[in-house]
Amino acid sequence: MNVEFVARRVRLSTRVTDLVETKLAKLEKVLPQAAQGRVVIQREKLGVTVEITITARQRTFSATEVAQDQEAATHAALERSTLLRRFAPLLGMAAAAVGSPQIRARGTVGGNVMNAATCADTVPALVALGARLTLQSAAGRRALPIAEFFVKPYVTVARPDEVLTDVEFPALPADARSAFVKLGRRNALAIARLSVAAVVRRGPDGRVVEARIVPGAALPVWKRVTAAEALLVGEAPTPERLAAAGRQVAEVMVGETGRRWSTEYKEPVVAALARRALEACCAGPAGGAS
Asked: Which top CATH class is 59-290?
């Protein structure tokens, strides 16, 4: 099915009309065939508002071994997704931390990824989940790990003619627990000053068999802190061990960003956030996704 656009025409300048039609022509070339688009052009007191809404019928994100959740594109949908609560809870937690209810109702995980702001809430969770992105252009499609997508803040490897069409990640193992913690100036409508996404798997003896730790707003690009993860694997998650892993996250942050005026504050805070995320993952008996 081809993309169809419906525009309510009003008296616009030729320049504005040409601009809108040019943008639509570009979108038609790169959007999946199974998509619908709607364009609303309105004249308001303060000028002209052009709204372009694209609704893709194909999946917007999927979890391997999990049924598709067609609704899970906005942050609000991620927040209430029963699939995420079962198979990737940390992503729902991260989505719930975004902005306000109004922002979460309209903003999408795709926008969070493509914007590439270091304070993005859902990206640390997606990196911890090992997500893969699919980019599409008129020339075709390509997929890559999300960890290879970011170059630096607000810069990605996406070309100007590419759009993000899929975000995929495997469901967490049944014995994994996950958490997302965020520090902002307020409890809502606040960008992350620092955040941490974590996943921990423990064996029958309670020892850690796998750990994933991804800080947000701490490094030039998001990535797992493998040095901190290595401190946990094979060990019992004692308070001292979890605190040591948190300090290792802080050490890696300082090593990559250098010492600056904010380091005195951020260094102990990111260590504490990492420790709290790991504590949440290790609370209770081993096993069971949370």
From this structure: alpha beta
Q: pLDDT per residue over 78-115, tens digit each?
A: 888 888 888 899 999 999 999 999 999 888 888 999 99
- The SS3 of residue 145 is strand
pLDDT in tens, 27-72: 656 555 545 554 444 444 444 444 445 444 333 344 333 334 444 4
Structure letter (DSSP) for residue 148: G
Radius of gyration of the CA atoms of the chain, in A: 21
Beta-ladder partners of 114: none
**Cα–Cα distance, 177 to 191 (Å, whole number):** 25
The string of DSSP letters for 175-206 reads: TEEEEEEEE-SSSSS---SEEEEEEEEE-TTS
Which one, of 161, 156, 160, lies nearest residue 139 by Cα?
161
Asked if residues 144 and 132 have their Cβ atoms less than 8 Å apart, the reply is yes
Output DSSP code: residue 33. Answer: S
Instruction: List pLDDT tens digits, range 154-190.
Output: 999 999 999 998 888 888 999 999 999 999 888 778 8
The closest alpha carbon to 61, from 27, 42, 87, belongs to 87
Extents of the domains making up the chain: 14-56, 59-290
The amino acid that residue 129 corresponds to is: L
By C-alpha distance, which of 114, 287, 280 is closest to 213? 280
